[in-house]
Amino acid sequence: MSFPQMLSPLDLGFTTLKNRVLMGSMHTGLEEEKGGFDKLAAFFAERARGGVGLIVTGGISPNFRGRVAPHSAQLSFPWQVSKHRKITDAVHKEGGKIAMQLLHSGRYGYHPFNVSASKIKAPINPFKPSKLSARQVRGTVRDYANSARLAQKAGYDGVEIMGSEGYLLNQFLCTRTNNRTDEYGGDIEARAKFPLDVVRSVREAVGEKFIIIFRLSMLDLVEGGNDWDEVVQLAKWLEQAGVTIINTGIGWHEARVPTIATSVPRAAFSGITERLRSEVSVPLVATNRINTPEVAEEILASGQADMVSMARPLLADAEFVNKAARNEAEDINICIGCNQGCLDHTFKLKRATCLVNPFACYETELKLEANASGKSVAVVGAGPAGMASACYAAERGFSVTLFEKSDTLGGQFNLASKIPGKEEFQASLAYFTQRLERLGVKVCLNTPAQADSLKSFDHVIVATGVTPRVPKLDGADHAKVVTYQQVLSGEVEVGRKVALMGAGGIGFDMGEFLSEAHESATLHPQVWLKQWGVDTQYQVGAGLTERDSTAFESAREITLLQRKTTKPGKGLGKTTGWIHRAVLTDRGVTMLSGVDYLKVDDAGLHIRHEDQDKVLDVDHVVLCTGQESNRGLLPELEAAQIPYVMVGGAELAAELDAKRAIRQAAEVVGSLN
């Protein structure tokens, strides 16, 4: 399939973008690291080399109070320009264009110096903001202009002014956070004065031949957000103020509607950009969960937007655009929207990376050097760690054979993809399968590896994964007791009443799998929008409406239990855990902490909870109690004195962690001689 719309140039008048792909802003954490700008230069250069039309950096504050965290990046002084020049020079050398995002965090600033339109604390931040005085507002306008001028001096092709996701400018625009009575508060014209003054001052500072993108919140998804008429009016005012492009913002960070997690349908929000397109003449950018060239092409070809924004997909595969241009879309390493390596890291103030691409943001540190030794590598096990190991070894030039005892590739990816909302894992499996074939890896399915078959290889990598851990419990061998693998593989069909032992990631996944009463809404965007109460027709302000009650139906009566006394799901992903907890709560799943498991018998699961003995009358007890490394091959290898190295679950049976497994595969393969 070709992608003529996605790959067509976009004429901005004073400059032309080579295609319609915008790499959306994404904070990596490199901005604050020692030597981080050298690493950022390599990171962005690789994406420019990969064909992106326009790159937008992570958020850079125009002043101290606007920083996301105390030591986060800002651009306010001439001496800071040289660091940014490293980035722009590297991108331009590869034929790319890059804009710097100007982001003032407002009340989201994780420090005691944060400020906002009003003195109203964000529910996701312990620090209450100070209210900006009118004089401080005018000073902040000057700070934006100064920062934009310095960005231009540093060689950037433009700036993106962040006006969405609940950051400072968005805070002034909405009554949720703006109860001012001065010239910056009241009706929409007054609330818009500050953001519009910022745009005008930036345009005056940089001149006409400089890209200004404004990230406009088109769907706030919070109480007190703007209505559709206000969004349209804002867009028209922004066009008059001199913006070059309007980018789409969806939802505040504090919104209780998922916007970018893997359970969100692809392109779920592009219709809202389409609705605005008839109101303004500047190019509009559609965003959120656009992760394949097919989806991007459909959005552009159907007239929903002039450009598409992809941030995490370009973490997953820097060559995304070039592969699409070569009609090699099947070779793209698809972003699965897991948030584990990117957003979860960012909100923990760690360096971002990618579950499916561990080289992202480590371009200068994690490398696969070519190996011309002609040596052979055997990889045992074709789960995520094994497939990645085989691919990386073949990329280095080794002769690779992959052994898998079952009849399919994928391991835990196959199980994960069965969870409602995690269907994207199939895309990763398809990518690795295709990659193995392209690289000439010899794949031996239905072939348990044995020492005799491995002794001729120069290197042996054991990636045999994990097996479910069966706790020491009276009745653990009862017919009612099954493992999560047996359920997901279809080996057993559980009854109407179910107890889930273990409330980690697996327990919650099983809760969603067994409670799902309909086909996964992730596959049906309009159904998903109704389930989460998103009104793209804007019958109510901020696009929020009553949630469809059918989302609360449960296929089973489920009790989720854990030994720990902490809140169930506390260890789930920082940016996605609340979604899983909300789904199970909506479906009436009972969650119990501080449980002692006593036994299983014909009557059900016997437990002790809050000093009382109880019997849960259930048809099945599903074990979600962790894993054990599958190391059955090791005694045989050691007896035959065959050297080996372990990766993934075989090396460490923690919570199922494909991110760690794939990165470890890269590190291990990179060290082979």
Q: What's the number of helices?
A: 22
> What is the total tally of β strands?
27
State the share of residues found in helices, binned by percent. Answer: 25-40%
Major sheet strand order? 3-4-5-8-9-10-11-12
Task: Tell me what portion of residues adopts beta-strand conformation.
Answer: 15-25%
Radius of gyration over alpha carbons? 26 Å
Give a short summary of the structure.
With 673 residues, the chain is α/β, with parallel strands linked by helices. Helices cover 30% and strands 17% of the residues. It starts with 9 loop residues before the first strand and ends with a helix.
Question: What does this entry look like structurally?
Answer:
Residues 376-643 form the FAD/NAD(P)-binding domain. In the N-terminal section; belongs to the NADH:flavin oxidoreductase/NADH oxidase family. Residues 7-327 form the NADH:flavin oxidoreductase/NADH oxidase N-terminal domain. It comes from Ferrimonas aestuarii. Its cofactor is [4Fe-4S] cluster; FMN. 30% of the residues lie in helices and 17% in strands. By secondary structure, the protein is α/β, with parallel strands linked by helices. The chain folds into three domains: 10-346, Aldolase class I (TIM Barrel); 376-467 and 628-670, NAD(P)-binding Rossmann-like Domain (Rossmann fold), CATH 3.40.50.720; 470-517 and 553-625, 3-Layer(bba) Sandwich (FAD/NAD(P)-binding domain). Strand 22 (595-601) and strand 23 form a beta hairpin. Helix 1 runs parallel beside helix 2, helix 3 (134-153) packs parallel to helix 6 and helix 13 (384-396) runs parallel beside helix 15. The chain is globular, with a radius of gyration of 26 Å. It starts with 9 loop residues before the first strand and ends with a helix. The model has no long low-confidence stretch (mean pLDDT 96).
